[in-house]
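Tip: read the tokens left to right.
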């Protein structure tokens, strides 16, 4: 490849090279102090052969330089790699990666024959196919890395600008499960409660996928603005008065786990949890159980937010997951009063 900016035609050659198993499904620390990918959502967590699947990425830029332009790139097309391991996509990238794109949303098509062509189906289980979609997120522009580096792409502040470091560049993948009949829906998030009362979230789902300005100035708060909280001299420590933070999630989000039920010969629901993040102050528990596969719904899935000492706008995120690839999120901004 030549030139600083990598165009779509060259994405497949670097998006999946050198990934060390990075995956957005893993829980991450709750503090947002750099460029972070919080989740990737598929509009069809379980796809069918021939489906068009749209992926949406939730990222947050906690850098002191934010807001910055953020470039997101995608590469798809790898299904049924040997051993169902992403490394197989890396080894055969030229033949398997055939769909690429840019932006916070990306749509690709599942081939019609992905299940019938999978050779290692386990007898007695529901036939399926597994695919991988790879992404990069750069707080600038993607370009060529110097020759000889193991990862052939790098992130730069601009076309002619300096190279950015790991706090400004994220690479990962999302798994795609394909079944003929089985389905899975994303969790249903409808609102949020702060300090025990319902408030209006800034956004839910794909509406949160913008490069918003985390430093935006707010001088007032209340019913016609954003919620108010009191600052705390303890600056996010447990000495601060806890402020409860809990998304409103429809209990119907918890579906039957067909695959787990078939394997275990007993009725099992989805395992579900909520991950919490904040760009100032702190959250008490960054991950809370939402639904247990055996005991069912857990109503106590909220967390506590401890406010920072400085007056500012604090941003909070709640991301609901299920263990079958479903995810949904919300963002809430609060004004920390002096």
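Filled-in amino acids:
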């Amino acid at each position: 490849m030549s030139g600083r900016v990598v165009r779509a035609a060259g994405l497949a050659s670097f998006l999946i090279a050198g990934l060390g198993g990075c995956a957005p499904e893993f829980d991450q620390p709750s503090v947002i102090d750099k460029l972070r990918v919080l989740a990737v959502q598929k509009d069809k967590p379980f796809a069918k052969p021939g489906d068009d699947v749209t992926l949406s990425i939730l990222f947050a830029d906690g850098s002191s330089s934010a807001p910055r332009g953020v470039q997101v790139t995608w590469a798809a097309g790898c299904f049924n790699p040997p051993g169902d391991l992403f490394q197989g996509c890396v080894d055969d990238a030229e033949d398997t990666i055939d769909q690429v794109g840019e932006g916070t949303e990306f749509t690709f098509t599942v081939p019609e024959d992905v299940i019938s062509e999978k050779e290692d189906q386990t007898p007695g289980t529901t036939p399926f196919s597994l695919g991988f979609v790879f992404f990069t997120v750069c707080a600038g522009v993607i370009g060529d890395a110097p020759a000889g580096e193991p990862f052939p792409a790098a992130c730069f502040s601009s076309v002619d600008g300096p190279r950015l470091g790991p706090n400004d560049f994220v690479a990962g993948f999302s798994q795609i499960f394909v079944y003929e009949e089985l389905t899975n829906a994303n969790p249903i998030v409808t609102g949020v409660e702060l300090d025990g009362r319902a408030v209006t979230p800034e956004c839910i789902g794909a509406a949160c996928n913008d490069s918003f300005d985390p430093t935006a100035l707010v001088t007032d708060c209340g019913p016609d603005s954003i919620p108010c909280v009191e600052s705390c001299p303890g600056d996010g420590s447990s000495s601060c008065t806890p402020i409860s933070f809990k998304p409103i999630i429809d209990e119907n989000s918890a579906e039957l786990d067909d695959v787990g039920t078939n394997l275990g010969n007993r009725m099992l629901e989805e395992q579900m949890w909520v991950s919490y993040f904040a760009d100032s102050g702190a959250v008490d528990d960054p991950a809370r159980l939402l639904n247990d596969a055996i005991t069912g719904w857990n109503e106590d899935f909220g967390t506590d937010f401890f406010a920072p000492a400085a007056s500012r706008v604090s941003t909070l995120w709640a991301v609901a997951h299920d263990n079958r690839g479903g995810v949904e999120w919300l963002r809430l901004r609060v004004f920390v009063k002096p």
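The first helix runs from residue 12 to 15. The domain at 8-178 is CATH 2.60.40.10 (Immunoglobulin-like).
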